[in-house]
Design brief:
5-stranded parallel sheet; elongated; Rossmann fold; 14 helices; about 35% helix; binds cytidine-5'-monophosphate; 2 domains; alpha/beta; 8-stranded mixed sheet; single chain
């Protein structure tokens, strides 16, 4: 399946104010273009002292604007025209001085004019601060940032760490890939705004002895995609996952566990305060009845040790039994008879929605096909990458929540 371009068809205005982080803005322009966006770069005079318009033009594939008096716009109104077809305006880096300007509505150069003149209801403003830690911590900057937030801007970061000035602290601009993901997230509809969503993901690991255990081939990718999609849709997301090798989606609270019992003990106290629970984890049905404190050794008799199993708690069913239960969504990973098995699970676990998929053809892969089964019937979500499917699932869940309200 070809890679999905997350910003395909989107037009982004990338503004640079002055700061050493301008070198990262060059990388950001590349990331946005690689993700499918068309990118219009606008630079302040100070930004052009750090990285040249020629560099930004080469990376974005478009002539850069630096001046309000640019003769390319015959009516001299680049501050109007440049944002009218934009899906988002991101200022990266945003210097302390530029943030102060925005906070006060000053507009004495093209970029600040553009921020003020953008159509605010359809072109979100994202601001990525980058400055020395003392400048960031200064009450004047903090006041200005707060005012920007109040005015509806999305403030991205900053991160903490080594600074170009040699100091260490808050004020580093986020990395280009992080900023790209923030732009992608900002463009998703906020279908779960104000909702709390709990997701389980990945396999569990049921230890036999200190070096061995029972697990399965779940990669966690579907659950991580659901967590990301829910977060992008505005939800407050907690992700409880078994052993996986995946980066945590941005702004998602992640809790790592190993066994089904640990997952159960982590999920249950959290579940009652959630609006939605999505159980994508491939929880081991059984665990070794006892745990050997030392590695079980071959004893030369050629007879294998007997492995007695005990049943694990069913986390989804336990959450569905809570008096204050969230809207529960289960997954069914089957090898055959998907619809019938998913429907049986709907009843057995007493949940309103089961999402069926064929385990062996999806475990570890980046794409999947989902079958939604609920009391009303069935709905197929055709083959797509897991993030696309997760966004569709989020939409389906939000529609069901609205129908319940
Ligand atoms: O019982 P079965 O494994 O077929 O059901 C799958 C669904 O139940 C998935 O949503 C899975 O995350 C959840 N489950 C669970 N705890 C278990 C077993 C499955 O939450 N012990």
């Amino acid at each position: 399946m070809p890679e999905v371009l997350q910003l395909d068809g989107r037009h982004i205005v990338l503004g640079l104010s002055g700061g050493i982080a301008c070198y990262k803005a060059a990388e950001l322009a590349r990331e946005l273009v690689k993700a499918g966006a068309s990118v219009q770069v606008v630079m302040t005079e100070a930004a052009a002292a750090f990285v040249t318009p020629v560099t930004m033009q080469a990376l974005s594939g478009r002539a850069v604007y630096t001046s309000q008096w640019d003769a390319r716009q015959s009516d001299n109104m680049p501050h109007i025209h440049l944002t009218r077809d934009a899906d988002a305006l991101i200022v990266a880096p945003a210097s302390a001085d530029f943030i102060a300007k925005l906070a006060h509505g000053l507009a004495d150069d093209l970029l600040s004019l553009l921020c003020l003149a953008r159509p605010a209801e359809r072109c979100p403003l994202l601001v990525a601060p980058a400055m020395n830690r003392e400048m960031w911590a200064h009450p004047a900057t903090q006041r200005n940032v707060e005012r920007l937030r109040d005015d509806g801007a999305l403030v991205l970061g900053p991160a903490a760490g080594d600074q170009a000035c040699g100091e260490i602290g808050d004020g580093r601009m986020l990395e280009a890939d992080e900023l790209r993901d923030e732009v992608i997230a900002a463009l998703q509809p906020k279908l779960l705004a104000g909702r709390r969503v709990l997701v389980t993901a990945g396999p569990t690991f049921e230890a036999i002895d200190p070096v061995r255990g029972i697990t399965n081939l779940s990669s966690g990718k579907m659950g991580f995609a659901v967590a990301r999609a829910a977060q992008e849709a505005g939800a407050d997301v907690t992700l409880v996952c078994g052993p996986v090798h995946l980066p945590t989606p941005r702004h998602v609270r992640r809790i790592d566990v190993a066994s089904a019992q640990q997952m159960h003990d982590t999920v249950l106290p959290l579940a009652a305060v959630q609006h939605v629970f999505v159980a994508t984890a491939a929880v081991a049905d059984w665990r070794p009845a006892s745990y050997a404190q030392r590695k079980i050794k071959k004893d030369g008799s050629h007879s294998a040790p007997a492995l007695e199993l005990a049943e694990n708690p069913d986390i989804l069913a336990a959450v569905a039994r809570l008096p204050q239960r969230p809207y529960c969504v289960g997954f069914a990973a089957e090898t055959n008879d998907l619809a019938a098995n998913a429907r049986a699970k709907l009843q057995r676990k007493n949940v309103p929605l089961i999402v069926g998929n064929i385990g062996p053809s999806t475990f570890g892969r980046d794409d999947n096909t989902l079958l939604l089964v609920d009391a009303r019937g069935e709905r197929q979500l055709p083959a797509a990458d897991k993030l696309t499917l997760a966004r569709q699932l989020v939409r389906e869940i939000s529609q069901r929540l609205e129908a319940l309200a």
